[in-house]
Every structure is written in structure tokens, then in C-alpha cells.
Amino acid sequence: MKLKGKKQESSDNNEGSKGKMTLLLALVALVSAFGSSFQYGYNVSVINSPAPYMQAFYNQTYFDRNGVPMDSSFQTLLWSLTVSMFPLGGLFGSLMVWPLVNNCGRKGTLLINNLFSIAAAILMGTSALAKTFEVIILSRVIMGIYAGLASNVVPMFLGEISPKNLRGAIGVVPQLFITVGILVAQILGLNSILGNAEGWPVLLGLTGIPSAIQLLILPFFPESPRYLLIQKGNEEQARQALQRLRGWDDVDDEIEEMRREDRSEKEEGQFTVLSLCTFRGLRWQLISIIVMMMGQQLSGVNGVFYYADRIFQSAGVDSNNVQYVTVSIGAINVVMTLLAVFIVEALGRRILLLAGFGLCCVSCAVLTLALNLQTTVSWMSYLSIVCVIVYIIGHAIGASPIPFVMITEMFLQSSRPAAFMVGGSVHWLCNFTVGLVFLYMEAGLGPYSFLIFCAICLATIIYIFFIVPETKNKTFMEINRIMAKRNKVEIQDDKEELKDFQTVPGGQAEKKETSNSEL
């Protein structure tokens, strides 16, 4: 036993010394996150600030064409389409993940994806000159497709090229850039900068610049070694890519681990979404991803952002200064996600998920109370500001970044694209649903709508606590083995043992043996 411990320790040290952050790895992470994830965040919040000026443009354009002003219900419809077409496009983008990453590779998909962004940026930037608002709505769909692909492919790509002891930290980088994108859009959208009648087409068109930069730089970086070896069967290219990423020549251990993964997957072949959903060996991984993605989007993050302005106004912040407060919330979001990058490898994924959802749950409950009492108790409005900030912190350290890291870690190469497709689709579908339903929910329930979010956070915490394992510093195969126990022995065999026990008491011992051998 002692010997085994020593051996384990030396192999761990060996791995630890190997998995250092090289300049190339850092550059790949930064360029792919800046070129792709950044725009997802940017386009989430870019239309919030210039909304009144864009609506005026819609109205003016309609008037110039038809000679009569647009009626308000039609304007509301057009604006809600402008907002909601983005997550709908995201859903379409998620559905394209599987075919694209398997045929064009991870890096190839990111490069193809940039064309969507550049096309949409040109269309949005010239929409005012062309006097057409339909183009803006179309561009929001295209930008959504772009973000849907980016939000899935970047974590997959970075997760596959990272050494296991840095996988969590590098996996949070895309989420960090999403929050940076939100913040940049909020700053540029200030009335004094581009959030005005003349500046908004420029504000919308700027989104093409990071894509152009990525299109120029990313081709010089290596493709995912796992993709090259396991899916393309090209060991030489995989070895070269890995040597460049790690900064030394001895990559035999990692190549061997990929070969093991490849062999273990040969029997199963490439997973489609349908085969993933029906395959017993991945059942709990799939359920876990769906629960975490639903928890992430249905925990009310959009609602809190939507309410933030009103909460601050009711606390006595001048309506002209609310936009600066929104920017400061964006800044808190960035700082806390940056913190997550540094603590995810020390504390592990589980702790951050539980703490993140826990903070969101508590702040939603207290926020309900504070919003109800703020007319009667003077200091309650300040409590609601604290709740918003605590909520943002909770979401930034756990609920936002970790689910995407977990998809990369819980699935092996053959099932990962299909898993991202499912996880991404759930993410965008829930995002779209919240955007659609929240306004009605808020009209009907008022502050009590946060109790629903509170309940969803609580349900997610309970599920994570009992089901989701810690994946910190483990290889993909080790994580797969932990989940295999849950899928086969604890779930399936326990039930069969029970059945055996009820019908043939003698059959139980026999069943135990097979379950152990399965392990």
C-alpha cells in the first residue's frame, strides 16, 4: 500500500511538472477566447444601452417608407424579435456543433465561424445607411449562430489542449472573456461614447474586429491533439501539436493516455445525439449536464440584470447615473470570474458550483423580501443592492463558468461533440425561454418571481451535491471510471439486486460478483 502511494505520488509530481502554462498555450487560450467568447458577451448586452435610439430608427424608417408612424404593438414586436433572435440563433448554432467539429476540427470550426460574425458586423454597421431595420434582426440571428458555436467549441478546444492540472483554469477563460465582452459593450454603450443616435451602428459593427484578428492569428496555432489522434488517427501531427503546446519533446505519457481513450472508445464508435441519449453508460453524465445548464440559465441571471436598473433607481440612484452602476456590476462580474480562474484548481469544481448556486439561492430569497419591504423600510433598498451584487458574485464564480468545464471533463472524445450539442442547446433554449417568459412572469408575480429562481437554484444544489463528482486534476479516463460506477453498479445493479432479492434470494450473491467484475 505504501509503495502504491509513493508510485502514485511520483506520477502525480511527474504530471504536475509537465502541466505548466507555456506561452503558446496561453496565446491559444487568449486568441480563441478573445476572438469568439468575447463576442458572445458583447452581443448579449450591446443592444441594451442604445435601445431607445434603435427603436427611434425603426420608427423613422417605417415612417419614411409608409408615410404613417408605426403602431406601438408592432414596434414592441420588432424590438422583442431583435432581442430574442440572438438566443434563438444560439440554439441553431449549438445544433451545428457536432457536424462541424467532427469534420472540420476544433480550430477549423472556430475559423469558419468567424465568417458569420464578420458578415453580421458589416450588415449591422451599415444598416442605418441602408435604412433597413430588417437587416439588424437578420444579423442578430447570424450573430446568435456564431455565439452558439463559439460558446461550445471554445471550451471544447481549450479543454482538449490543456494539461489536466490546468484544465479548470483554462476552461474558465472563455467565460472570463464573455464577461469582459459584456463590460466592454456596457462601457462603449454609455451615452457619452457610442450609446447615442449617431454612434449605435458603429457600436453594433465593432463586433467584427475580434473575429478579423482571430482569423489572421489562429491558423498559426496547433489543432487539438486529441482530435488529430483519436478522430483523424494521425499520431505524428498529434505529437507535434502536443510538443508545441507543452514546450518539450517528451509527450509519450499524454499520447499513451489518448491511445487508451481511443481503444476504450473503439467499441462504441462516434456518438450522435440520439445514441448519446439512449446509451446507458453515459446516462448520469448527460443528466448532470442538462441539470447544470438549466440551472445556469433558469437561475434568473437575466432577470437580475433586467431588474438591476430599477433596483438601483429605487435605492435613490439618479436615473442618469444608473448606466454607470450597470457598468460597475459588469466590472464585478469580470473580477469574480477572474478570481474563479485562479481558485478553480485549488478548490475544485464541486465547491465552486455549490457555493455559486448557494449564493444565488440565498440572494434571490432575500431579494424577494427586500423588494417587498422597500416601500415600508427605508434601508431595504440598500439590501436589495447587496443582493444583486452577491448574486452576480455567485453566478460568476460557479454557475456561469463551471458547467462548460464539466462538459469537457465528463465526456470522452467520441461523445464530447454530441454532449456539447445537447448542453449548448439546453443553454440557449433556456436563455430564450427566460427572455420570453420573464416579462410576463414579472408582470404577474412582481418581486415574487425571484422565488421561482430561488427554488431552481436550490434544486440544482441538491442534484450537484448528491450526483456530480469532483473532476479536479483527473484524466478523462479516470473521470469516466468514476461515472461508470454510478451508471452501471450503483444505479442499474442495485435495482436488479433488489429484484433478485425479492424473487430469488439465492441470486443476490451471484449478482454481486458480476457487478464487481464489471467494475
From TrEMBL:
It is a multi-pass membrane protein. The keyword Transmembrane helix applies. Residues 509-519 have a biased composition (Basic and acidic residues). GO terms for cellular component: sarcolemma. Residues 29-472 form the Major facilitator superfamily (MFS) profile domain. The chain crosses the membrane at residues 21-42, 77-98, 110-130, 136-158, 170-194, 200-221, 286-308, 324-344, 351-373, 379-406, 418-441, 447-468. It is found in: Cell membrane, Sarcolemma; Cell membrane. Keywords: Cell membrane, Membrane, Sugar transport, Transmembrane, Transmembrane helix, Transport. Its main location: membrane. One of its GO terms (molecular function) is fructose transmembrane transporter activity. Residues 497-519 are annotated as: Disordered. GO terms for biological process: D-glucose import; dehydroascorbic acid transport; fructose import across plasma membrane. It catalyses: D-fructose(out) = D-fructose(in). It holds the Pfam family Sugar_tr. It comes from the Eukaryota. PANTHER family: SOLUTE CARRIER FAMILY 2, SOLUTE CARRIER FAMILY 2, FACILITATED GLUCOSE TRANSPORTER MEMBER 5. Belongs to the major facilitator superfamily. Sugar transporter (TC 2.A.1.1) family. Glucose transporter subfamily. NCBIfam families: SP. This is Solute carrier family 2, facilitated glucose transporter member 5. It comes from Grus americana. The lineage of its organism: Eukaryota, Metazoa, Chordata, Craniata, Vertebrata.
